[in-house]
Amino acid sequence: MAEDIYREVDEELKAERLRAVARRYAGLAAVAVVAVVAGAGLWSWKVAQHKALDQAATGTYLAALRQTDHLPDQIGHDPITLTGKAQSGLESLQKLAPSTDAGVATLARMQEAAVQAARGDAKAALAAWNAVQDDPKADPALRSIATLLWCQHQLDTGDIPTLRSRLSLLAGQGKAWNGLAEEALAVLDVREGHKDDARKKLSALVDSADTPAGVRNRAQDMMQALDPSAG
What we know:
Blueprint: H1 11-49, H2 55-68, H3 71-74, H4 84-96, H5 102-119, H6 122-133, H7 140-152, H8 160-168, H9 178-192, H10 195-207, H11 213-226
Helix pairs in contact: 1-5, 1-7, 1-9, 1-11, 2-4, 2-5, 4-5, 5-6, 6-7, 8-9, 9-10, 10-11
């Protein structure tokens, strides 16, 4: 596949094709994180149970979660208007976001962001993730996930210095999201035309025993796209 990507095209077309490959693999990473969000959210909720949560708010959140938790599997890529239980669930989540209980408010915003992203409203999803990552009372694990998702959904168009600044907080040996953060930083390198920097990051991901298998496979594919003759 990669052998013919850059042949017989000028440098600008090469760069554009490479950016498209990078976006595709970054998109796959974003999809993978969605599954993690649910697990982290459940864990956070269980911990919060021991901190005397507002039971009414918790019940409302769980009901809204049931009404909206299957949306990513049912909704296509085009923006749509929610109806019925899904719309009711979204409205409940939006009302819970300003909740005085930090645990419920954070989980409500995370689920709201997932729903908005699934229905194609990127602006609303980004706003919800941003609210979580900027909330000092939010669970640190969920703040990190929100930061990662916020960045991943803007790799192609977002402000590069801002994205790098936020991703740098997640990168580093021993950090839970290092692999995905370094992958995203490599995509930004590609976007700016810094292929050598991208290669270094991707090579480090491939060589590290701590890199998740999915990230390693994507890093290998992106490296092959950068150097099609190596395939």
